[in-house]
Design goal:
Blueprint lengths: L1 E5 L8 H5 L1 E7 L4 E8 L4 E5 L4 E5 L12 H10 L4 E8 L9 H17 L5 H15 L7 H8 L3 E5 L4 E5 L4 H10 E5 L6 H13 L3 H22 L3 H15 L9 H13 L1 E6 L7 E6 L4 H10 L3 E3 L10 E4 L4 E4 L1
Parallel strand pairs: 4-6
Antiparallel strand pairs: 1-2, 2-7, 3-6, 3-14, 4-5, 7-8, 9-11, 9-12, 10-11, 13-14
Length: 335
């Protein structure tokens, strides 16, 4: 899964087609897992640990979108799985958490089915297929960053242009990465949200030419470039300050992005030692990311937990999609 530092929103069409979007993000050691076991019986049995659901689809005609395991159904349709199989899936964070869990699972499913079907695909093609599954096949409102972040992994500056996507891996010195990780806090707000509704309002405002939203997206694009440069040159305190500035612009995109509870957590963190931060993903709930003076990190953590926040341990992870096969059982797995 991923943490997006800045630029989220500029990857949501039609903005990137018309003005070009950019996102600065990294993957962390929270994962989406999928396992496929071939069986002799016809049909596909799916078990989702996250939703406590077990379902069987005997024929392609059974893959009707009805709100239950639609992501899996769409992946099976788009990738064209034939024959009998058992699928098992689970994630380290719930959907709606702001860490891109749904898109990460879409990438895991594409990678898993690609390996099973022995279909040659580049990383760009995998990310595009995952995007097609969510945005085109299922019609879920959203951006493009999550699929590319999960596929490629690591720290990336991702450009979204009118006709292509370019993933630029960042060569950040290891000392800078260790120091950045040491300064960051990841706090769960205790509630998830439906990102599609928030993004739909943002898109509607942009299409209506709402000046505040257009200016906010342009400012976030500028800040994304500045934050990328700050990381590459080791200016972490500047990075933390810009994280706060980016949050002020993000809140202008849609009214549901923040809430009194989120503002209470954020302002308390700022008062106790955080230089900046933001809600991850579309907003409205999920996780808050904070940049803190490391000498005050424990004070910020205590203050957040007193308000009901849950501080979660995490680390950076440079690996993107990984698939493997267990020879004795012909089991295919993806993460």
């Amino acid at each position: 899964m991923r943490i997006s530092f800045c630029g989220g929103g500029t990857d949501v069409p039609p903005y990137p087609r018309e003005r070009g979007g950019v996102v600065l993000s990294t993957t962390i050691n929270k994962y989406a897992y999928a396992t496929l076991i071939p069986v002799d019986d016809e049909g596909v049995t799916v078990r989702s640990l996250d939703y406590s659901v077990v379902a069987k689809y005997d024929t392609p005609a059974d893959l009707l979108y009805n709100g239950e395991l639609d992501l899996v159904k769409a992946a099976l349709k788009v990738m064209g799985l034939r024959g009998g199989a058992r699928l098992f899936m689970h994630t380290d964070a719930p959907p709606g958490s702001g860490l891109g869990s749904s898109s990460t699972m879409a990438v895991a499913l594409v990678g898993l089915l690609r390996r099973y079907l022995k279909r040659p695909m580049t990383d760009y093609e995998i990310a595009e297929a995952a995007y097609d599954i969510e945005r085109r096949e299922l019609g879920i409102q959203g951006g493009m960053q999550d699929q590319y972040a999960a596929t490629f992994g690591g720290f990336n500056f991702i450009e979204f242009n009118s006709d292509n996507v370019i993933v630029n891996p960042l060569r950040i010195p290891p000392d800078t990465l260790h120091e950045l990780e040491y300064h960051l806090i990841l706090c769960y707000t205790g509630r998830t949200r439906l990102s599609a509704n928030i993004l739909r309002d943002q898109v509607d405002s942009y299409r209506r030419g709402k000046t505040e939203v257009m200016e906010a997206l342009d400012q976030m694009k500028r800040l994304t470039i500045d934050m990328k440069n700050a990381l590459l040159t080791g200016r972490l305190d500047d990075f933390g300050a810009m994280l706060h500035e980016a949050w002020t612009h993000k809140k202008r995109l849609a009214s549901q992005i923040t809430s009194p509870e989120i503002e209470r957590l954020y302002e308390t963190a700022r008062m106790t030692g955080a230089a900046g931060g933001k809600i991850l993903g579309a907003g409205g709930g999920g996780y808050i990311l904070l940049y803190c003076d490391f000498e005050k990190k424990h004070l910020v953590t205590e203050a957040l937990e007193k308000l009901g926040g849950e501080v979660v341990e995490f680390g950076f992870d440079n690996e993107g999609l990984r698939t493997w096969e267990v020879g004795n059982t012909k089991e295919r797995c993806a993460r």
